[in-house]
Amino acid sequence: MIARFLSAAGVLAAGVALSVGLAPAAAVRAAVPPLADSAVTAPKAPAKPTAVQIAGEFPGDKIIVRQDERDDLFKRLLSEVNWLANTPPTTSRPKADKMGPKFVVTVLVKEKATQVYDLYPNAAGGPRAYRPAKQPTGKKQAGWFYGRLTMSESLRLSGVPLKAKPDVVSGGIGGGVGEDVAVDEMDPVENVNHVLADFRRLFLLNTAVLIVILLGLAGIAYLIRRRV
């Protein structure tokens, strides 16, 4: 009697286990919450700069170049400083009397500052840039950099009173390149005189070399003739 009861219980347990194993997949899916409900929202892309501000000791003390007003000039200014955000420092601080005037350039996103740099376009040995450790978006490694040779012209075209340097510019922006160029820099007669002077020096040098070669050949010929 007990053996029959145990046998019937075993059959019943096996049937229950088999029914659970063959349960419809829909029932299993119903027990698991949809993935969409637990998905994490992707982070938003950082906002793009909309303006560049220049501050310094000049009339007005501040200039703002907006992308929607002067797009070409805005891109030019942004290219002067945007690469400084994540670049390791490349030089040391110049001597105080060799730095020239300082201009503070701030990158703005809808009137909110995101990057700040000090530019020295007239520093001895070439333009310099300084990245302060305290930035609007957080602290960064402070450091000095060699700036681009176009730094002075980019600032000048924005309205900063600097001497024109059109020789370092490959293209114009709104006709700004070439303004206030000294007359002697464009004097064709003087340029021709320089070319002629260089040509004369080259001709004399070549003549001297030719004379030395001829004398050498004459000496060799004389020695050969005596031996013969």
How would you summarize what this structure contains?
With 228 residues, this protein is of the alpha+beta class. The protein has six helices and eight strands; from the N terminus they run αααββαββββββαα.
Instruction: Give the domain tally.
Output: 2
- Strand order, sheet with most strands: 2-1-3-4-5-8
SS element count, helices: 6
Beginning-to-end CA distance, first to last residue: 143 Å
What's the alpha carbon Rg, rounded to whole Å?
A: 39 Å
Sheet with the most strands, sense and barrel status = 6 strands, antiparallel
Order of helices and strands: HHHEEHEEEEEEHH
Give the % helix. 25-40%
What structural category arises from helix and sheet content?
Answer: alpha+beta
Average pLDDT, all residues: 78
| CA-based shape | elongated
Uncertain ranges:
2-28, 171-186
Determine the strand fraction and express it as a percent band.
15-25%
Number of strands: 8
Question: How would you classify the quaternary structure?
Answer: single chain
What descriptive keywords fit this protein?
two-stranded antiparallel sheet, disordered N terminus, six-stranded antiparallel beta sheet, 2 domains, 6 helices, 228 residues, 39% helix, alpha+beta, 8 strands
